[in-house]
Batch of 2 targets.
Target 1
Amino acid sequence: MLFPYYYDSNIPQKLATTFSSKAPNCWESPPTGLVPSPLSPITGSKIWTPYATSLWQCSKIYRLSVVSKYEIMKTHDLAFSSRPKTINGSKLIYDCKDVTLSPYGKYWRQVRSISVIHLLSNRMVQSFRNVREEETALMIENIKNSSSSSSSSLVNLTDMFVTLTNNIVCRVALGRKYSGTKGGRRFKELLATLGELVGAFNVGDYIPWLVWMNRINGLDAKVENISKEIDEFLEGVVEEHVDRSKREDSYSVNIGNENKHDFVDLLLQIQPENTSGSLVDRDTIKALILDMFVAGTDTIFTTMEWTMAELLKHPQIMKKLQNEVREIAKGKLNITEDDLVNMHYLKAVIKESLRIHPPVLLIPRESIQETKVMGYDIVAGIQVFVNAWAIARDPLSWEDPEVFRPERFLNSSIDFKGHDFEFIPFGAGRRGCPGTLFAMNVNELALASVVHKFDLSLPDGSSGEDLDMTEAAGLIIHKKTPLIVVPTPYSC
Ligand code: HEM
């Protein structure tokens, strides 16, 4: 007989970290911390929940995840290569026609490869270099202007990072910025709500016959309104591109020529070839655009925000980074991407930030076939959460895991590319993040430019130790409070 188990190392994270060293080796004993949810027989839900009654059991759940990360993401990567289809995800993202939420299969392979070829490949990412450099220079100018125009010289750095990432993704995906327009500002707000709703708990996913409750508690109405507004905005974007393409004489891809064609242009080019049973229909185009915003903007600005917060908390690390950046960029007005190649400490700082503050606790996977994990039979359709947060703070893999110490990456080959399973902020395997290169290019340039151009301090002379490092709840774990700083321009 097959028993479904639900591996959840996410509950409760901090407790689990504290007690993990006391956990017995779960290879030797059955994972008693994982038992069927007492509700399962009543609800008929396929998901069985952890039923931890003691701290010891919590720690066992955690240990299990430490071992099973290889099992899930390497040994049985194919078996766990799908995503659970949720009610909110289906309603908000065109029936999960995007890359992130679509179930494993031919369609997912096709849309993932389209997104990589037309936006996320090394070649495409390099071709957007001018966009990154222009937008970063603009952000630096804005920081300078905001600090001089406000009497208290305070600057909301979180806002600056949000605008930067939004503008970059808008320019490369949609061909222009929308931040100055009313529609663009509303789209930004809608994306924030959409992010919350995609990750929000929907009782119908777990207890299907209680789905009616969403009509009473207002969730259904909220989801419908948001998806309608987002669809109107995206329709407008696609129509604008269709009109433009009709006017252009030649409609060939020209990556070398200042990205004459953006992501939407390229998606529209694919569309006519597949008229019957088209894989890339209008909804797919809108879903893929949305995917790039949902997966690509918050994750990037969150990394910048946490990195900067840790630098403010650790002035010696900030100084060491500034010395590296200012030495390499000596005599230059602006940092270019060529300068980044030799900024080894910068790369170590960002890695350490991703280790201690991974922006995503990994998106759930779902089993597509019967498989045996660690001696346990798992049926198809079981959700699995791999907790990147807990894994990257595991004392069995990391010395002083709670300490922010970039030096640990300096003489180490450990990278985030999905081969070193103690550090997987971008996931691993078939469903690993395809936007890693895109994200790191934006992150490195922005962070290096800020520390190059400014000395930063906290308002009212407060010290880094006072900085609020509380994490906000949600799919993307950003800082609960925005990062407000006092920037003093540094004369290069
Ligand atoms: C620091 C920035 C980023 C982080 C930390 C991050 C993290 C992740 C993680 C953890 C996953 C799930 C991996 C798994 O299940 O194994 C993922 C998936 C994904 N990411 Fe990212 N990501 C980042 C930036 C981006 C960017 C910039 C884009 C695109 C513009 C992007 C597009 C995607 C997509 C499309 C998927 C779904 C892949 C699939 O299911 O096949 N990400 N990301």
Note: Confidence is low (pLDDT under 50) at residues 1-67, 249-257.
Target 2
Amino acid sequence: MRAVVMGSGSWGTAVAKVLADAGNDVVMWARRPELAEQITTGHENGDYLPGVTLPANLTAVSDPAAALADRELVVCAVPSQSLRDNLAQWLEHLSPDAILLSLAKGVEVSTGKRMSEVIAEVSGFPARQIAVLSGPNLAKEVAQEQPAATVIACVDEDQAKRVQEAFATGYFRPYTNTDVVGTEIGGAAKNVIALACGIAAGMGYGQNTIATIITRGLAETIRLGAALGADITTLAGLAGIGDLVATCSSPLSRNRTFGARLGEGATLDEAQAATNGQVAEGVKSCRSVRALGQQHGVEMPLTEAVYQVCNEGMTVQEMAVALLGRSPKPEVYEGRG
Ligand SMILES: NC(=O)c1ccc[n+]([C@@H]2O[C@H](COP(=O)([O-])OP(=O)(O)OC[C@H]3O[C@@H](n4cnc5c(N)ncnc54)[C@H](O)[C@@H]3O)[C@@H](O)[C@H]2O)c1
Ligand SMILES: O=P(O)(O)OC[C@H](O)CO
């Protein structure tokens, strides 16, 4: 396919490499001309993926019109809270038949909308031209060609298959799914749970605690997904438990790392300053994921606790006390209403 990756952060760059390795004609868009130049001539993105040699035929430009001209697959690789504004600027340059593929794992704070909903609203494109990619995909590991799988979700299965084919390489295995809601909720919610895991690890707690948070995090993600109309089997797959385990367990995760700094005693500002400009989506999305839960009467205690720490001044010690002090529950309950 003729593809463009709009955004040259760590995941956008790794995804562009996968697409190029899979034989597609790929261009990247970078906001900064000097980064576009470094990718095109130096075959590296030193700010985000240092040490990774990019394919020689992968080029980048800083002019969105040039990047988008005549592209069949438009990969949206900017952070979730900036997607609306960016897409509005790209709109006039989009090919009318293009597939818009979202990589972002977040829920818009100002509207509570998932990324595919934002894309539909801004672009006016039909659902069959909007897809999402989500799974256990730490950018650095994918860029190093370590084996991994992902999910391409689109309501139109044939379109999902087209995108699947474009992404298939010897080291990256895409699966398809028509459950866009479940795929997106899995990706957004796991970032919030990874913050909680990081906090626990930073406080010195071990694997029993981490496993408990992952498992109970999955439980509240499933409750939210069910309330929003997701197929809960999606959350038992790569975009659910798969991504949750990868993100909550890996020191490469920005969300887990951000949480670990909080658990070690850093302030929010100190943790933010240490991100090197990279996005930890859960810090903002804890607000919108919590709001979705509240709107739908879904109990989400871990999300609530992370929200309180990130927005209301709760300390990590108070968070632990609040979570452990909750009333006794059966393990399986609906948790709504
Ligand atoms: N990094 C990963 O391992 C990974 C894996 C899967 C999914 N994701 C998701 O992909 C999305 C993008 O993440 P990333 O890892 O590439 O982020 P990043 O922080 O590495 O890079 C973000 C990119 O977007 C640009 N950007 C930031 N704010 C912008 C704005 N307001 N307007 C335009 N561009 C802006 C930055 O310059 C940078 O090029 C996120 O939603 C993330 O959750 C990341
Ligand atoms: O680094 P994070 O925390 O944004 O997580 C990266 C990916 O989403 C893992 O699948």
Note: Residues 2-178 form a domain with the Rossmann fold fold (CATH 3.40.50.720).
